[in-house]
Structure formats: C-alpha cells, structure tokens
Amino acid sequence: MKIAVPDLVTNSYFPAIAAVELGVFEQEGLEATLEHVFPVPQTMAAMRDGQLDFVAGGAHATLNAFPDWNGAKLLVALSQGMYWLLVLRSDLGVERGNVHAIKGLRIGAAPGVDVGLRRLLIEAGIDAERDGVQIAPVPGANQPGVSFGVTAAKALEDGQIDGFWANAMGAETAVRRGIGTIALDVRRGDGPAAAKFYTFAALVTTDRLIEHNPEAVAAAIRAIRKTQQALKADPELATEVGNRLFPQAEASMIADIIRRDLPFYEPAISEEMVSRMNQFAQDIGLLSAPVPYEQVVYTSGL
C-alpha cells in the first residue's frame, strides 16, 4: 500500500509517518510504503488517478481531486484542528494574536494550504489586495524531498519573505533561530474563532479501495489509532522516526513538537468538524453545496 504525504519533514501528518516507520501498519497486516508528493492538490490527484492508496493531508484538500466528496472518504483524524501557524519576522515585534500585523507583508504559503490563511484574513476583515498582503509559494519549496516549513524558515532568514503560513516544524525552526515569531496558532485560540475548524489532518482513501479492500482500510484506521496512543505513551518515539527520515536539526526538535501536539491526537471525526470544514470549503469555492456526513466520512470504520 502506498501512503503519501504532501510534506515529509513535519509534525502535521506525523501519526501516519510514524505508523509506517515504526511498523504499525505491518503489525496490522498491511505492507505500507511512504511517499512525498507536493503540493497537496497534486497528492490528492495522484490518489484519484490510482497512483496512491492513502493520503495523509489536510481534510479539505480532498475536494481538489474529488469534487463534492464524490469518490473519496476521510477515514480517521490524524489530529484535531487547523494545524498551520503564521510566523512573522521577529524584528517586527508582533504581539501574539495580532492578525492585522500581516498588512503590507510578503507571506509564503503552499498551494492548497494558502486557502486557510486567505479565508482567515477575510474573517478578520483584512482585504489582501487593499491591505497589501502578498501570499505566494516559497521559492524552492516544490523540490522533491523538501520540507515546506523548513524551506520557508530559510526564506524568512534570507529576507525573501516577511513571514510564512506553515506547520509547527517550520515555526519551531524560525523561533529557535531567532528569526521568526509565532503571530497566530489558530488551534490554540489565536485569530478568528472559526479558523480553528477550517480543516484538520486526516487519513483519506478512495471509495474504490473501500469497496475492493475494506480489510485494508480497517487495518489502516487501526494503525493510526494505535500510533497515536503509542506517541502519547512515549513521545520520544518521535525522535526514533525523525532520526530515520529527517535532517539532524529537525530530528532533534520533533519530539518536543509532538509532545505539544498530543492533546490534539484524537482520531474521531465529529459531525461538527465536518459541518464546519464543509462551510469553509463552500466559502472558498471548493464545495458547491452541503453534503451529508456519511458522504464525507467512512462511518463503517468508526
């Protein structure tokens, strides 16, 4: 089974990454390999086209390749809440939670990830064009094997951008180097209240695989749940995974980041989560109309 992530050197999809590297999928009877396919719309398209079996990515991004939730299902939450952070240059002296500090700045954000920031700004009453907010991809971040967050931190250090919207690995890198400050962490209460519910990290598969191999789907769900529990019991397992896959600097940080993320490691996907995410998807034009929970989530796996 091929499992893909849109970012590899990251905390965002770590339960899926760890489930492969720690052999948990294998324990559940699945031979799984990990692939890095960036950006997330392309990851979802590859699964739609039969090149991948599962994607660990932003739940809302499924709609890029499966319009109106036709052909794919969310299986399990890797973590709760929108998991990207806004990091701005430390020399700006921005106070945490001050959304309006973004005005007039150049912000790096990955395709498919940027939609969360764009909608957040609208909710905060900020017009990107009027207020001079430039949101664009980070140069060099689309190379194979590259971590978007870490690359964004380097671009911030080099003065190519004034801030970035990315995962906690990128944020931690920037903060530890003294080059960036966390301006917004929405799932911890910063920014517009609705933003926390725009999306969440999820394991996704196709209706095709559910129909033809429900046993594999059930095994994948068990593997993620088991891995979440294992990381809660021993966060240092993250270092073991990081040492295999990450550069040394990022491997040394991952356990600390995962330890902070543990409160969000709940696998359930509630009806409220889906309803709020779908409202976000409608607001940004990814979803044409409301759809029932059962069309979005694989309920047989609950």
From TrEMBL:
Localization annotation: Periplasm
Signal recorded as keyword: yes
UniProt-listed Gene3D superfamilies: Periplasmic binding protein-like II
Record-linked Pfam families: NMT1_2
GO CC field: periplasmic space
Keyword field: Signal
UniProt similarity note: Belongs to the bacterial solute-binding protein SsuA/TauA family.
Entry-linked PANTHER family: ALIPHATIC SULFONATES-BINDING PROTEIN-RELATED (PTHR30024), TAURINE-BINDING PERIPLASMIC PROTEIN (PTHR30024:SF47)
UniProt protein name: Nitrate ABC transporter substrate-binding protein
Source species taxonomy: Bacteria, Pseudomonadati, Nitrospinota/Tectimicrobiota group, Candidatus Tectimicrobiota, Candidatus Entotheonellia
